[in-house]
Each structure stands twice: as structure tokens, then as C-alpha cells.
């Protein structure tokens, strides 16, 4: 499928898939969306703790990089696992301007390491941040009670409804520890019903810029 780099409303870049008219991040602001959905309503619930995170859709590495930056402010030690079946290309990576837009050029070396480090092994990027990238499909995830927090950042239900099914959320539920959280930008009724069916408690929250609502699910 044909892909292009676009600039979103907050100045940060993302990848647009033309055939689907679908972006890796919100066209209303990639950085704004990541901070609102995954940091404010997810990571910030675990201050001054060790936090194990599963990201569904590692993609451009934006969520991982913002998590690295924010975790330093929140006093957290992060064990981050990013699942991605189709890694972005080196050319696409060169067009991602996140260190610049986040005023974090001093941490660009970490962003680069996130993409350069080996897949399928745990990479200790700093004393308090480790990253494991797994090249697998979501329906292959079989972790059991391993994570405190899931960033569910799959492509939207409109283009890939198979990523938002009961069977996928069963895998998410099983992979989480008790008293844990899943956050996603999505807010469709069918997604809420599928989450509830597997045992999640679901709350609807205000969405990021350009989107009225989002879900946070608790185990």
C-alpha cells in the first residue's frame, strides 16, 4: 500500500496510508494524542513505580519515546514491550521529527537506539528504561499477567476491525496483572462491548484534540 509522510496539526509527523485514508497517529496532532491518551490517562497513574508496558502497535516509536521522556519526570523505571508485525522503513524513520518537536534533541540518541536495537531481545537503553521489540501479530500474544499497562494503539476499527475483537481483548486481559490498565484512543460502542465481555471495567474519558472521547479499561 502507498504510504506518505504528513505533518499533523501540532507540527509532528506521521505516516498516512493512502488506500485506507488512515494515519499512524491523529492528524489533529500526533504528539498531543500520545500525551493525552497514553501518558495523561495511562502512565501518569503509576508515579514513582516500576511499570511494565505493552504497546500494541510500536509503529514510529512515538509512544515509546514520549514514555521515556515522561517517565523521568514521574520517577518511574520502565520495562517496555512493543509489538509490531510490520516495522517502518529506515527512510520513514528519518522523516519522524519527534525529538525536535518535543524539544528533546538531547535525547535523540535514545530515539535512534529504539529503532536501531535488536528485535526479540531485551535492550537496556538506560538505567531505568528497557525496550523489547517483538515482531508478531496481535493474535499471537500469549503473555500471562505480565503487564501493568497496555497502550492499545492499533489501526482503527474502520479499516481493521479484526484487531478489536473479543479474542484479541481476551489476550490483552490475560496479559495484564490485577489492578492494571489498558488505554486506547478508540471509543466505539462495539469496542466497549468486546472489552466488557472479557472482564474489563470500561470508562469513557474526554478524547485528545479532534476526538470527543476515548476508553480506559481496568482489570
Report a brief summary of the structure.
With 219 residues, the chain is of the alpha/beta class.
Distance between the termini: 37 Å
For the biggest β-sheet, the strand order reads 6-7-5-4-8-9-11-10
Number of helical runs? 7
Q: Give the structural class.
A: alpha/beta
Enumerate the spans where pLDDT stays under 50 for 5 or more consecutive residues: none
Order of helices and strands: EEEHEHEHHHEEEHEHEE
Global shape: globular
The total beta strand count reads: 11
Query: Percentage of helical residues?
Result: 25-40%
Q: What fraction of residues sit in β-strands?
A: 25-35%
The value of Rg in angstroms is 16 Å
The average pLDDT value, as a whole number, equals: 97
Largest sheet: 8 strands, mixed
Oligomer: single chain
Write the topology of this structure.
Layout: E1 3-7, E2 13-17, E3 22-23, H1 30-40, E4 50-56, H2 62-74, E5 77-83, H3 90-94, H4 98-101, H5 108-116, E6 122-126, E7 129-134, E8 147-152, H6 166-175, E9 176-184, H7 189-198, E10 201-206, E11 213-218
Parallel strand pairs: 4-5, 4-8, 5-7, 8-9
Antiparallel strand pairs: 1-2, 2-3, 6-7, 9-11, 10-11
Helix pairs in contact: 1-2, 6-7
Amino acid at each position: 500500500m502507498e504510504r506518505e509522510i504528513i505533518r499533523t496539526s501540532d507540527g509532528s509527523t506521521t505516516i498516512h496510508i493512502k488506500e485506507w485514508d488512515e494515519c499512524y497517529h491523529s492528524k489533529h496532532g500526533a504528539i498531543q494524542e500520545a500525551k493525552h491518551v497514553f501518558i495523561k490517562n495511562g502512565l501518569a497513574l503509576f508515579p514513582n513505580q516500576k511499570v511494565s508496558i505493552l504497546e500494541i502497535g510500536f509503529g514510529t516509536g512515538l509512544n515509546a519515546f514520549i514514555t521515556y521522556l515522561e517517565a523521568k519526570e514521574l520517577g518511574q523505571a520502565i520495562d517496555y514491550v512493543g509489538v509490531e508485525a510490520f516495522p517502518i522503513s529506515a527512510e520513514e524513520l528519518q522523516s519522524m521529527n519527534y525529538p525536535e518537536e518535543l524539544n528533546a534533541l538531547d535525547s535523540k540518541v535514545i530515539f535512534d537506539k529504539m529503532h536501531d536495537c535488536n528485535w526479540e531481545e531485551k535492550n537496556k537503553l538506560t538505567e531505568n528504561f528497557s525496550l523489547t521489540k517483538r515482531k508478531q501479530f496481535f493474535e499471537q500474544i500469549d503473555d500471562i499477567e505480565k503487564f501493568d499497562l497496555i497502550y492499545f494503539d492499533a489501526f482503527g476499527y474502520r479499516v481493521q476491525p479484526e484487531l478489536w475483537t473479543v479474542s484479541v481483548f481476551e489476550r490483552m486481559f490475560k496479559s495484564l496483572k490485577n489492578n492494571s490498565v489498558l488505554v486506547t484512543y478508540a471509543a466505539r460502542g462495539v469496542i466497549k462491548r468486546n472489552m466488557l465481555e472479557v472482564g474489563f471495567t470500561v470508562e469513557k474519558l474526554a478524547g485528545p484534540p479532534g476526538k470527543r472521547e476515548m476508553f480506559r479499561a481496568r482489570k
